[in-house]
Design goal:
Helix content: under 10%
Strand content: over 45%
Radius of gyration: 26 Å
Distance between the termini: 27 Å
């Protein structure tokens, strides 16, 4: 229900204090959803200054607004606090309350209520998010408390993020490079980790479950004079549902901020995460179903196949309040990511012997980035304006060592454990020379934007210009792959409240947005000749239009979005032989509609419903020998649906969710009609939670029907990754 946000603590960092004019805009929007005021209230002066409200650009929205799952105030779509109703972009918010009641322990479970998402984990190591036909997590910009979380090429390693430390998630669909720069070509996922509290809070919980899953998470938060301190830590361990896929992970984050003067606040944020996981194998498929009677628990990966990752990050956020509506924010971040990963998981239903693709890569990556933004909030020309401008700088280096392997053992189904050739070289083949690669990348950009509200109208505009340079050097050759370029991206969105009444508010909206991502160059050796391989930067343009409805005193929120997104120069891989992939540029177009309905019937009952339809097509996809233009993008289903409800009775809370993913082609690099079609699937989940005093106990069952489904695949082969089987989880926790 609509509530006037209370005054937050001044210790959230880095907050943007919204001045009285902007708060008046938000208060006016909230009043439209409430009953008409009494005469004495109506006569109250309207020019009285309102208390400041913290911007959650890098920390959670505080107070009652953060608990309003129906029409929340979000910041990811515009970098300023904006009601979802007025924001001309498709936005979904998942609160800490929803996460806890669902019993989620993985990120895909947290994002169940986001329309049209697909998930897949390749070999227990690479969880991916697919949205609107885009197949890679690199297509979605991931932010943690306002700081980009990504590797040099743009991908985010989501294995490094335990669910237990997440306080709030915002997902904005569509390109957003005009606001955030590179990597935001398909959407923005922002994760907030700081607790939403104005008082000291300590929480701890422990979970045990199927496949010997164990996790302990603790967090503490305490306000300080002019600041706050917080810490979150977690450790998890599981045997995995596939055989020999043990996984261990640790995470710790700590932050402290302090108001140094009346106008300056300084903070420090540190994060450390470590993952050690054995890798499972993908499942060979025939007619869209597992071949040779293979179960999802089977693992034909080679001994020692594993993934080890370590991430360390240090951020220094600053906020300067200059008066007269002006504020300046700066976030400096330096991070290091070390990773050792192996292959050895390839299993396909080939009629000829094939190897398991053993490979090794030892990578060290270091990135330094700085984001500066200046904002002015105030009244202008009878409306409320928010002017922002600034720039960012990012430079990084990645060193990688990759040994070569030859004469590897080969296998032929259905026996994937006994080699049929080169058995004497079991298990990896003959190790050859190690290739050393050195990649450097520098990206800089400047941007300006104006958000303006005048009565029922809201306007969001912005333009950004980025320049980049990437260089790749490799041992054994003097050839260097170097690519430089620049890109301008724009965003324009508007909404208009066509109906404004105490019973309901209806807004129509439209937007045009752009996104870009530079692709890492590489070196290719063919016939003894080494040449640089340079792919054009990926670029997306998107048109959206739709409407949003808030009704019944803000107890119901509905959104319908029609979109058409084109991706230019999409990077695509195709197989040349059993061991070699090449890459090319392609063009893709995705048209569709997304809808979501959220309701809060009363304090005890709430729920949601989502539906998505998309037509995702490769408009141009040519390889050296074939043309696959016109094929549906691999793994892109046409239909998605989801629903859930949460019912509280006394101390008990019951949560149920269901998700449907329709039929989809396994591959798109085959002649039309020859790709396997994966069947649709439905996954049911439920959780029962009992709270007493400050303690709680919870039982969760995921995939109740034990559906055997293929979640996703990224190998462009006749094989896929199995979705998790039925799992039971038991959690107990305490909050002080």
């Amino acid at each position: 229900m609509a509530q006037t946000p209370p005054e937050p603590a001044s210790n959230e960092l880095p907050p943007v204090v919204v001045d009285a004019a902007t708060q008046k805009k938000k208060s006016a929007a909230a009043k439209k959803k409430q009953s008409p005021p009494a005469p004495s209230q109506a006569e109250a002066p309207q020019s009285e200054p309102a208390p400041p409200v913290a911007n959650a650009g890098a920390s959670p929205v505080s107070g009652a607004a953060a608990q309003d799952i129906v029409n929340p105030i979000t910041t990811t779509g515009s970098r300023t606090p904006t009601e979802a109703l007025r924001l001309p972009y498709s936005t979904t918010v998942v609160t800490r309350e929803e996460i806890e009641k669902s019993g989620a322990v993985r990120l895909d479970q947290v994002l169940r209520s986001v329309p049209g998402l697909q998930f897949g984990t390749q070999g227990n190591a690479y969880p991916r998010i697919a949205t609107r036909g885009l197949r890679d997590t690199a297509d979605v910009l991931v932010l943690i408390d306002g700081v980009p979380f990504r590797q040099l090429g743009g991908s985010a390693d989501l294995t490094m993020l335990p669910v237990g430390i997440i306080e709030r998630v915002e997902f904005v669909k569509g390109p957003a490079s005009g606001l955030y720069g590179r990597s935001a070509i398909g959407g923005v996922l922002q994760i907030f980790t700081r607790p939403d509290s104005d008082t000291a809070v300590y929480k701890q919980k422990a979970t045990v479950g199927s496949d010997n899953f164990r996790e302990t998470v603790a967090s503490g938060y305490t306000p300080l004079k002019g600041g706050a301190a917080s810490i979150q830590a977690g450790i998890s361990d599981t045997d995995g549902f596939q055989r020999n896929t043990d996984r261990e992970a640790e995470f710790v984050a700590a932050s402290v901020d302090r108001q140094i003067t009346d106008w300056l606040t300084v903070g420090v944020v540190g994060q450390f995460s470590q993952v050690d996981a054995k890798r499972g194998s993908i499942i060979p498929l025939i007619n869209g179903r597992p071949a040779f009677g293979i179960t999802r628990e089977d693992n034909f990966g080679l001994p020692g196949a594993r993934f080890e990752g370590e991430y360390t990050s240090l951020s220094i956020p600053l906020k300067a309040t200059l008066g007269n509506g002006w504020e300046v924010h700066n976030i400096f971040n330096v991070n290091r990511y070390d990773r050792f990963a192996t292959g050895g998981i390839t299993i396909t239903p080939n009629t000829t012997p094939t190897n398991k693709g053993w490979s090794e890569s030892d990578t060290r990556q270091e990135i330094l980035q700085n984001d500066l933004i200046a904002q002015w909030n105030g009244g202008a020309f009878g409306g409320i304006a928010n002017l922002s401008f600034g720039g960012n700088f990012e430079t990084g280096r990645m060193d990688q060592a990759s040994p070569s392997f030859s004469n590897q053992p080969t296998y032929l189904g259905p026996n994937f454990t006994t080699p049929v050739a080169n058995a004497g070289n079991y298990p990896y083949g003959i190790r050859g020379a190690t290739t050393l690669s050195d990649t450097t990348q520098t990206i800089g950009g400047v941007f300006a934007g104006l958000d303006y509200t005048w009565g029922p109208w809201s306007l969001f505009t912005g333009i950004r210009w980025d320049t980049f340079e990437t260089t790749v050097e490799r041992s054994g050759t003097s050839v260097v792959a170097n690519q430089t370029g620049d890109k301008a991206t724009k965003r324009f969105g508007t909404s208009y409240e066509v109906i404004q009444s105490p019973a309901a508010t209806v807004a129509v909206f439209a937007n045009y947005t752009e996104g870009f991502r530079p692709q890492l160059p590489a070196l290719e050796t063919s016939g003894g000749v080494t040449l640089p391989r340079l792919l054009e930067p990926e670029f997306t343009r998107s048109y959206e239009a739709g409407f949003k409805v808030s009704a019944f005193n803000n107890a119901l929120f509905a959104e319908v979005t029609f979109f058409d997104m084109e991706r230019v120069d999409a990077q695509r891989s195709f197989r040349v032989d059993a061991d070699t992939f090449l890459f090319t540029n392609a063009r893709q177009d995705v048209e569709g509609v997304e809808a979501q309905l959220r309701y809060r019937a009363n304090d005890s009952l709430s729920g949601y419903f989502t539906y998505s339809y998309q037509d995702a097509v490769n408009t141009e996809f040519k390889t050296l020998t074939a043309d696959y233009s016109g094929n549906t993008i691999r793994m892109a289903a046409r239909h998605f649906a989801g629903a859930g409800f949460d019912w509280r009775f006394g101390n008990l809370n019951w949560n149920v969710s269901v998700n449907y993913v329709g039929e989809r082609p396994l591959r798109d690099n085959l002649p039309a009609g020859q790709s396997q079609i994966l069947p649709s699937y439905i996954v049911w989940n439920t959780s029962l939670r009992y709270e007493f005093d400050r303690y709680f106990a919870q039982a969760t069952v995921n995939n109740i029907a034990d559906e055997f489904y293929i979640a996703d695949d990224f190998s462009a082969q006749n094989a896929g990754n199995a979705g998790p089987p039925r799992e039971f989880l038991f959690t107990a926790g305490v909050r002080f």
